Amino acid sequence: MLPVVVIAGRPNVGKSTLFNRLAGRRIALVADTPGVTRDRKQAEAKLRGRDVTLIDTAGLEEAAPETLAGRMRAGSASAVEQADLVLFVIDARAGVTPADAHFAQWLRRQGKPVLLVANKAEGRVANSAILDSYALGLGDPVGVSAEHGEGVADLMAEIADRLPPEEEAAEADDEEADRPLKMAIVGRPNAGKSTLLNRLLGEERMITGPEPGLTRDAVSVTLTDAQGRAVEIVDTAGLRRRARVEEALEKMSVGSAIHALKMAEVVVLTLDAVQGIQDQDLQIARLVEREGRACVVALNKWDAVADRNATRKAIMERLEDSLAQMKGIPVVTLSALTGAGVDRLLPAVRAAHEVWNTRVPTGELNRWFEHALEAHQPPLVNGRRLKLRYVTQAKARPPTFVVFGTRAEQTPEDYTRYLVNGLRGTFKLPGTPIRLQLRGTKNPFAEN
Fold it and tell me: Where, in this chain's numbering, is GTP 1 bound (predicted)?
């Protein structure tokens, strides 16, 4: 029997869109009209190496049992009874509604593990709703956009982590160890991405040549590293400036490359060391940071660089100045053509992946927080000092922290940077994106 993952929530929050996205194919009908799904839909899917049975349910509504809505709710309740994990979906654009709060309370009474999913979480407007959803008492929310695929890779990982262990613990351990690390090779055209993949594989898997743009589709291959662990590598089309992307085929290639980047755990940004770091390289790096992926910079064609010390210094300074959000990003110098230095790449990828997965114990985190507040107290905002009370880690992949306190949401950007830099330095989180969310707490004695 496969573990059962049930998708539940009120009507029109995007349950069927999420079901299709997790299943990897269009099974459930999707429309803007509430109540399109009436019967439960079921499909098998593989989420981060775990085979599961997905069940899409009708929207949860309060209704008399004999009505259509009542029968639909009964069917949803029956699905929840057999669930190993319930994905409770809310609409981040609409915020937490009374119906969401009601059904969250109902779900807690069912005694089933629940993972809170804030769908339609594209854009900044959704961030406040994601933070507000902590009030539902269902733990840390996972923000996704099922329609655009944003955050779905993180959701799959969270689902896999929360599923019950398989019958044989040894088999489960073996499966986790065997699950390949997902890595994408990205960069501008002609940076040597396909040559690098061929060198890693030890065979001419990809067509290479001096002409830029030979790779059109994102191509996935799996290799075993020196430690016997699997790595799934995706070679992608070169990413040019948007204004220069003209033909329909190239647009699809770029779209495929960006999708591969979003689905990866670690991104290897390949630079042409002879040309040095370009603005487009930095744009790609910012996209990696925005998507919350771990990143390793591969300085390719290192064998052709005349003044290596000056080149390395110039590139490192540009990275430090332009990518403050990924301070300490690991850099590997190599030549995909000759193979020099390529053996250092996968160990650097593994190290970046480990940092990206870091979880900091709550006690250590709050001891650091107390020292940080004493060393540099929170600033005054509108004549009143901010009172930041405690911090917790919401999730890893990338490390995400939530600071709670009175008017914490008004914390200035420079103080937020101070806290992020402190987290990065104290807990050894070089090069990985760090998310810091600030959530205000209500004063019960304040006048309404």
Answer: 9-16, 56-60, 119-122
